[in-house]
Each structure stands twice: as C-alpha cells, then as structure tokens.
Amino acid sequence: MKRKKKKGIIGRFVKTIFVLGFLAAIGFVGYYFFCPDVAKLKKQNPGKTSFMEYREQEWKQNGKRIKIQKKWVSLKEISPYLVKAVIIAEDDKFWSHHGFDLDAIQKALEKNVEKGKFKFGGSTISQQLTKNLYLTPDKNPLRKLKEAIITWRIERTLSKRRILELYLNVVEWGEGIFGAEVASLHYFGKPAALLTAQEAAKLVVILPNPRKYRLDGSSQYVEKRAQIIYDIMVRRGIVVPEYDEVLQQKENGENLPVTGNNPAH
Q: Would you call 138 helix, strand, or coil by DSSP?
C-alpha cells in the first residue's frame, strides 16, 4: 500500500515537473529559434530528410554502399490496415493528443526514476515525424527540446491526416528502405494499398528497430507481437477475419468454395 502511494506521489511530481519544464522551455527559448518552416509541408512533400542524410553519413563512415529507396504515395494509396496498425502500435492516442502523450511520458519517467537512469520515452507519431524530418537519433536534452518545439508547431500547422501521410512516407523500414510503399514492395512484393491486416501488423512491429527485426518468419518476437496487434484490430472491428481471408484468396487466385446456399444450384 505504501509503495503504491509512494509511486502515485512520484508520478504526480514527475508529471508536474515535466509540464512546467516543457512550458518554461517553450517560453524562454522561443520556438522560432529552432523551428523550420513547417507550413510548406501542407502542400509540399519533403525530399531527403535529415534522418536519411544521417543514415547516408553512417553508411559512408562504415564503407557501405547503400542507396536510399523511397517512393511517395498519398494516404489513400496506403492500406487502411497499415494506417490503423501504425496508430495501435506506435501512438494509440494519436487522434486525441496535441503532439505529446503526457501519460506515456509520465510512465517512462517513472521507470527512469525507479531504475535511476535518465532516458526519454513515450514518443508520439508527431514527435517521430519531427525526428525523421529535421533531427537525428541523438538522445540529449537539447535535441529533445528542439523536437518538442517543432512537434508543437507541426501539430498547430498540419492536419492529423497530413501528419500520418508524411510519417508513413518518410519513416525507416529497413536498411535504405523508407516509406510504406517501398517497404511493402520490398517485404511483400505488392504496393502498400494491397497490404492485408496481418501483413500490416508485421510491418509495424519492426518500426522501432527495422534494421534488427526480421520479417522472414525467423523472429518469434515479430510473430507474437504482430499477432497481438492483429487481435486488437479484430476486437476493435477493424478486421473481420472471414472477410480478410476471402480477400487473400482472391489475391492469391484461389477458387472460392461453393456453398449449398447458392441460389444458382
């Protein structure tokens, strides 16, 4: 009981400190100092992102000859299953928050306090988009401050739909693989619009570390995590398993079974 009460006090304290610190940072540093012109993203698609340039530099230093593979597609050309799966796996409160999931950040900070370590966590899709477009993977207070300021501007300037479209087109999905279209073609040999619910679930599982996790069936973690995400989609009514199975049969060119209820017989 005491431990639970203590944890609650720590949680409230951490959350209060974070909110105050965040507001102070916004006020004193000034978001215009760090913020690029995000308004142009309303109609203009980004070219090579900061994260892509970071990877290219990394490959060059390691003597690797890898080229960036990317192909822009609109959100309507991406399977709704992938859109839903990304939100479930990466940022379940995407539609309701304003760029920051304070509950997720609080939980991450509580773990840091308990373990005596200082790490960042609880990133939203909007924060990840900011990192990909303008920053690098470096984890330090200054970079996180820049991330917070730019994310705030992105959320105030762009629609949620546009944020999703941008994210799904620039995020890393493997060594040199960026964006949903190239990832779908690479892993499943089909455009992103044709991804099934199960394929979408597998794709989002590798997002946290796409250069480590594999989609060839050899990773138990990927298979189990993908099944969890798929099951959530089923429970929420996003996927009707029987209908999904029919779609796969059609795609594979299989003959659909003839039932005794067919009025033609």
A: coil
Share of the chain above pLDDT 70, in %: 69
CB 154 within 8 A of CB 99: yes
DSSP 147-216: HHHHHHHHHHHS-HHHHHHHHHHHSEEETTEESHHHHHHHHHSS-GGG--HHHHHHHHHTTTSTTT--SS
Please give the distance of CA 254 from its chain centroid, rounded to a whole number: 34
Residue type, 227: Q
Encode pLDDT of 125-178 as tens digits.
999 999 999 998 877 777 888 888 899 999 999 999 999 999 999 999 999 999
Domains of the chain in sequence order: 9-35+69-251 (1.10.3810.10)
254 has a pLDDT exceeding 80: no
Residues facing residue 178 across a β-bridge: 70, 172
Find, among 262, 246, 243, 265, the residue nearest to 254 by Cα: 246
Which residue's entry shows tokens 């304070």?
102
